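Subgroup meeting minutes
Present: P.N., E.W., G.H.
Scribe: E.W.

1. P.N. recapped why we're keeping a running log of single-chain structure predictions: easier to compare across weeks, and new members can see raw inputs and outputs side by side.
2. G.H. added today's entry (191 aa).
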Amino acid sequence: MANAHDTFLYAPEVAAPAPATDEGRLDAFLRTQSKALVAFLRARSYSEEDAQDTAQEALARFARHYAGRPVDEWQPVLYRIAVNAANDRLRLLRRRAADQHVPLEAVEIEDERQDAEQAAADAQYDAMLAEAVLALPERCRQVYLLARVRGMDTAEVARLCGISQRMVQKQLANALQHVWRRFAKDPSDAL
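Output recorded in log:
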């Protein structure tokens, strides 16, 4: 035959007896309030994790300091502690954010219109340069491309083209003068 204890374990419709000790009442109260407290704090927190952490802190503070109060005061006191803990956490987060603050004056903001205008100007410049280089005589163009585009020195260009270094310098000077004329009325303006 089943005793009263067995009936309680296997009959869910039978209500659990109230805990007899203050510690048992406190544990039962904290367990029943935990989920509701997290839900309450969700609206005051930045994240679910913050709400859970704040609820845990509030439950711990309550258990340490207010368990001796009358049972009918427990819930309001717990929620006041939770609000205070949430405010403490929010102040801490704000203080950390302020420490990491970068003044607007220190941030460079790029203007996309300037980038687009600069890209268009660069493309126009490149097209004019290509046109000027293509208009050079063949030997002059070859020397210019090897020296200016590939970055070869005078001796390397002379060896590749089969001409003297002096002739490379003369051809390069002619090429630069021709290109400058395309970009400015006075070659010194283009420099």
